[in-house]
C-alpha cells in the first residue's frame, strides 16, 4: 500500500484551509463594514445558508462520506476505481440538477421553512430573490466535492484544499469593486457566488484530469454499486450535516429578533477558523487513510493514525477555545467594528463567540471520530446519533429562548455538539483497538488542557493590564497583537514544560511525512 502522508496531508490541507479562512475573515469584515447587521445582511445570510446546507448533504457530507472510503478501497485493490468514479459522477450530477431546479422553483417555501420570522417584512422577499441567485452554487460545489474526494483518496490534497480560496477571492474582489464604482455591494456579492462556484469546480476538475481520473457527464445508472453508494450516503447526509441543520434551526428561532441572524452568522464564522483549519483538515486526510489501512488489515497503523490526529487536534483546538472564551470582545472589536457595525453589534457578537468557543473542541472531535464509522461504511450509527442531537439542539434552542433570547441557538448548538461527541465515542467502543486512542493520547490530553489553562490565565491578566487600549481605534490592533503574543508564548512554554508537545517530535513527524 502506498501510504498517505498523514502529517504532510494535515499541513497541506491546514495551510490552504487557513488561507481560505483568513480570506473568509476579509469577506466577513467587508460584509459587516459595507452592509452591516440589518435586513440586507439577514437576507443574505439566510439565502446563502440554503446552498451551504444542501452542500453538506449532497457533497462534503453524504456523498463524500460514502464515496471516499469505497473509492479508496477500489484504488487499494485495483478494482475499477475509474469506472466507479464515472458512475458516481453521473449519478450525482443528475440528482443535483434536479435539486437545483426544485430549489429555485420552491424558494419561497424554503425561506419560510428556514427563516419563518422573516414573513411579513421586506427580508422575506429579499431572501427569496437572493436565494434564487445563490442556489445554483450547490450544483458546482457538489461536483467539486466529488473531484476533491477523488484527489484526496489518491493522496493529492493541494488542489482540493485550495479551491475554497477562490470563493473568498471572488467575493472580496466583487464587494470592493462594487463599493468603488458606487453600486449596491450586496448585488455584487450575491451574483458572484455562483461564478465562484464554477471556478472552484473548474480547478478540481482540471486537477483530477492531471491525476489521470477523466470524468465526463453521462446518463446515470443505478447499478448494484451505485445502490450501495446511495444506501450509505443517505444516512451520512444528516450525520455530516448536523451542524448546518442546527445552524438553520438556530436561524429559525432567532429570525424574529432584529439583527440576531446577522450576529449569530458573524460569531459562527469566527469560530469556523480553527474548526476549518484543524477539524476539516483532519477529517479530509484521516478518512482515506483509515479506509486504506482497514482494507490492508493494518489495525495498529489505524490506531496510531487516529491517536496522532487526536493529539494534533487537541493541541491546536483547546487553546483556541480558551481564547474565544477569555477574550471574545477584543477579537470581535478588532475584526469587525467598523463601517456599518457598531459597539452594540460587537458586544452581542462577542457573547455568541464565547458560547460557540465552549463547543469548539466538540465540533473538531466530530471530524476526528466520524471517519471511524465512515471508513467502515457505517453511516447509520452517526445518522442515529445525529437525530438525537438534532432533537437536543431544537429543544434547547426553543426552550431556552424565553430565558436567553437570541443566544439560545448558540447555547443549544454547543450542548448538542458535546452530546454528539459522547455518542460517537461510546459507539466506537465496539470497533476494537483500531478505533481506540492509545495511552500516549490520554497522557498528552490532560497536559494540553493544563497548558491551555495557563495560557488562559496569562491572557486574562494581560487584558486587565491593557484595559481600554483594547477598544481604542488607534491602539486596539497593537493591543490585540500583544495579547496574541503573550498567549502564544505562554502556551508554547507551558506545552514544553508539561510535555503536551515536543519540538523534536513535531520535526520528526514532518520529516517522516516528507520522506514517506
Computed CA radius of gyration, to the nearest angstrom = 22 Å
Span of the ends, CA to CA: 12 Å
Tally the structural domains.
2
Range of strand content: under 5%
Helix/strand class: mainly alpha
Mean pLDDT: 82
Largest sheet: none
Question: Could you walk me through the main structural features you see in this protein, from its secondary elements to its overall organization?
Answer:
The chain has helices at residues 6-34, 39-77, 81-105, 107-114, 122-134, 137-153, 158-181, 185-210, 224-254, 260-295, 299-326, 328-336, 343-374, 380-399, 401-404, 408-427, 439-466, 476-498, 503-515. It is globular and about 65 Å long. It is mainly alpha-helical. Mean pLDDT is 82; it is low at 512-516. The protein has 2 domains: 6-437, no CATH class; 449-516, no CATH class. It has 19 helices and no strands. Helices cover 82% and strands 0% of the residues.
List keywords for this structure.
mainly alpha, globular, 2 domains, 82% helix, 516 residues
Q: Quick gist of this model?
A:
The chain has helices at about 5-35, 40-75, 80-105, 105-115, 120-135, 135-155, 160-180, 185-210, 225-255, 260-295, 300-325, 330-335, 345-375, 380-400, 400-405, 410-425, 440-465, 475-500, 505-515.
Please write out the topology.
Elements: H1 6-34, H2 39-77, H3 81-105, H4 107-114, H5 122-134, H6 137-153, H7 158-181, H8 185-210, H9 224-254, H10 260-295, H11 299-326, H12 328-336, H13 343-374, H14 380-399, H15 401-404, H16 408-427, H17 439-466, H18 476-498, H19 503-515
Helix pairs in contact: 1-7, 1-10, 1-19, 2-3, 2-5, 2-6, 2-9, 2-10, 3-6, 4-5, 6-8, 7-8, 9-14, 9-16, 10-11, 10-13, 11-13, 11-17, 12-13, 13-16, 14-16, 17-18
Amino acid at each position: 500500500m502506498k501510504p498517505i502522508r498523514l502529517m504532510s496531508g494535515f499541513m497541506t490541507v491546514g495551510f490552504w484551509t487557513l488561507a481560505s479562512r483568513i480570506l473568509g475573515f476579509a469577506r466577513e469584515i467587508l460584509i459587516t463594514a459595507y452592509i452591516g447587521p440589518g435586513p440586507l445582511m439577514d437576507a443574505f445570510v439566510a439565502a446563502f445558508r440554503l446552498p451551504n446546507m444542501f452542500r453538506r448533504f449532497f457533497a462534503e457530507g453524504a456523498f463524500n462520506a460514502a464515496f471516499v472510503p469505497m473509492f479508496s478501497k477500489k484504488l487499494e485493490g485495483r478494482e475499477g476505481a475509474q469506472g466507479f468514479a464515472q458512475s458516481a459522477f453521473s449519478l450525482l450530477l443528475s440528482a443535483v440538477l434536479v435539486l437545483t431546479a426544485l430549489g429555485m422553483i420552491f424558494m419561497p417555501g424554503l425561506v419560510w421553512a428556514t427563516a419563518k420570522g422573516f414573513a411579513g417584512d421586506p427580508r422575506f422577499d429579499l431572501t427569496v430573490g437572493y436565494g434564487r441567485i445563490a442556489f445554483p452554487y450547490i450544483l458546482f460545489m457538489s461536483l467539486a466535492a466529488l473531484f476533491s474526494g477523488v484527489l484526496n483518496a489518491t493522496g493529492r490534497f493541494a488542489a482540493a484544499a485550495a479551491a475554497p480560496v477562490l470563493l473568498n477571492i471572488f467575493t472580496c474582489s466583487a464587494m470592493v469593486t462594487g463599493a468603488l464604482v458606487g453600486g449596491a455591494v450586496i448585488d455584487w456579492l450575491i451574483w458572484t457566488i455562483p461564478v465562484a462556484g464554477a471556478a472552484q469546480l473548474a480547478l478540481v476538475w482540471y486537477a483530477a484530469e492531471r491525476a489521470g481520473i477523466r470524468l465526463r457527464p453521462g446518463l446515470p445508472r443505478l447499478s448494484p454499486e451505485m445502490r450501495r453508494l446511495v444506501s450509505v450516503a443517505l444516512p451520512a447526509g444528516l450525520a455530516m450535516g448536523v451542524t448546518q441543520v442546527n445552524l438553520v434551526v438556530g436561524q429559525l428561532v432567532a429570525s424574529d429578533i432584529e439583527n440576531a441572524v446577522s450576529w449569530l452568522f458573524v460569531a459562527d464564522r469566527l469560530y469556523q477558523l480553527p474548526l476549518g483549519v484543524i477539524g476539516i483538515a483532519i477529517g479530509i486526510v484521516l478518512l482515506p487513510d483509515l479506509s486504506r489501512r482497514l482494507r490492508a488489515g493494518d489495525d495498529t497503523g489505524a490506531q496510531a493514525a487516529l491517536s496522532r490526529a487526536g493529539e494534533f487536534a487537541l493541541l491546536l483546538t483547546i487553546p483556541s477555545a480558551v481564547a474565544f472564551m477569555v477574550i471574545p470582545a477584543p477579537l470581535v472589536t478588532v475584526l469587525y467594528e467598523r463601517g456599518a457595525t457598531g459597539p452594540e453589534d460587537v458586544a452581542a457578537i462577542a457573547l455568541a463567540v464565547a458560547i460557540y468557543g465552549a463547543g469548539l473542541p466538540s465540533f473538531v472531535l466530530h471530524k476526528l471520530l466520524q471517519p471511524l464509522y465512515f471508513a467502515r461504511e457505517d453511516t447509520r450509527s452517526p445518522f442515529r446519533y445525529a437525530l438525537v442531537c438534532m432533537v437536543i439542539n431544537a429543544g434547547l434552542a426553543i426552550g431556552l429562548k424565553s430565558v436567553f433570547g437570541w443566544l439560545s441557538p448558540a447555547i443549544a448548538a454547543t450542548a448538542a455538539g458535546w452530546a454528539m461527541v459522547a455518542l460517537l465515542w461510546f459507539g466506537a467502543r465496539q470497533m476494537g483497538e483500531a478505533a481506540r486512542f492509545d495511552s500516549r493520547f490520554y497522557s498528552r490530553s490532560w497536559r494540553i488542557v493544563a497548558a491551555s489553562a495557563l495560557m488562559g490565565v496569562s491572557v486574562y491578566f494581560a487584558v486587565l493590564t491593557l484595559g481600554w487600549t483594547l477598544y481604542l481605534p488607534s491602539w486596539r490592533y497593537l493591543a490585540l497583537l500583544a495579547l496574541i503574543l503573550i498567549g502564544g508564548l505562554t502556551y508554547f512554554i507551558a506545552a514544553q514544560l508539561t510535555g503536551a508537545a515536543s519540538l523534536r517530535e513535531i520535526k520528526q513527524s514532518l520529516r517522516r511525512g516528507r520522506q514517506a
